[in-house]
């Protein structure tokens, strides 16, 4: 989706972030138990070839980790997730979030992101919500919770009327079904927690995170260039 009505530079920056999300193909959804987990987590993701993280605001560590990661890993793509209010969107963007993900279609969150020139991925799971999200300026639409709402079959069914919309299915995505999603032209990337579950972070299992990231990137390559 292009970025209409944006000043050229901001529009291009937003487009380039959307292109990076799409090119990586996977958005690791992260719930940090502590801010100390952030840097080793991102090291592991980068070592696995996936220099990106959606740091959720579900724990207080999330909002603190965003500026730390922007400084420690300036080449990685750091977004904020579980952004449910305009205030949280502002806080996350002020701290350096490069993209914002929301569980639902909240028009205030979308408006804040648009005004600041930050790509926004609102959650949507019905044709009406998808239409509303796109009209409000969604950069990509997070199809959530994908698995329980029909997964790949849902996306195939709505690709007719919403053919210009690119989705990030999230919820129930795993290495077992990642390729199936990525093979759909409507899918820009998939999101999920499988790469770095809170228990892996709590136990310091960064090797496992690196391995899962590397496996995910192999699946992306195979699905796209087979
Ligand atoms: C999310 O927060 O986006 C979802 O809870 C991720 O779902 P998953 O745990 O099934 O990947």
Fold topology:
Elements: H1 8-24, E1 26-30, H2 38-47, E2 52-56, H3 60-72, E3 77-81, H4 86-94, E4 99-101, H5 107-116, E5 120-121, E6 123-124, H6 127-136, E7 142-143, H7 151-158, H8 178-182, E8 190-192, H9 198-202, H10 206-225
Parallel strand pairs: 1-2, 1-8, 2-3, 3-4, 4-5, 6-7
Helix pairs in contact: 2-10, 4-5
This protein binds 3-phosphoglyceric acid.
3-phosphoglyceric acid binds next to strand 8.
Description:
The chain is of the alpha/beta class. Helix content is 47%, strand content 12%. It is built from ten helices and eight strands. The strands form two sheets. It has a six-stranded parallel β-sheet with strand order 5-4-3-2-1-8. A two-stranded parallel sheet has the order 6-7. The mean pLDDT is 96. The protein binds 3-phosphoglyceric acid. 3-phosphoglyceric acid binds next to β8.
């Amino acid at each position: 989706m292009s970025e209409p009505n944006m000043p050229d530079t901001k529009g291009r920056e937003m487009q380039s972030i959307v292109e990076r999300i799409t090119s990586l193909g996977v958005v690791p959804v992260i719930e940090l138990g502590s801010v100390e987990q952030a840097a080793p987590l991102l090291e592991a993701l980068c070592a696995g070839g996936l220099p990106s993280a959606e740091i959720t605001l579900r724990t207080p560590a999330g909002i603190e980790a965003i500026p730390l990661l922007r400084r420690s890993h300036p080449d990685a793509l750091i977004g904020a997730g579980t952004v449910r209010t305009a205030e949280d969107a502002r806080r996350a963007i002020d701290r350096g979030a490069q993209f914002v993900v929301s569980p639902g279609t909240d028009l205030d969150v979308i408006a804040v992101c648009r005004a600041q020139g930050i790509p926004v991925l609102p959650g949507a799971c019905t044709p009406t919500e998808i239409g509303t999200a796109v009209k409000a300026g969604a950069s990509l639409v997070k199809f959530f919770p994908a698995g329980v709402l029909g997964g790949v079959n849902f996306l195939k069914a709505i690709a007719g009327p919403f053919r210009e919309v690119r989705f990030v299915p999230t919820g129930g995505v795993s290495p077992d079904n990642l390729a199936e999603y990525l093979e759909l032209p409507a899918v820009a990337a998939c999101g999920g927690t499988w790469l770095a579950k809170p228990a892996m972070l709590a136990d310091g299992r960064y090797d496992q995170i690196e391995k899962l990231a590397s496996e995910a990137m192999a699946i992306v390559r195979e699905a796209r260039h087979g």
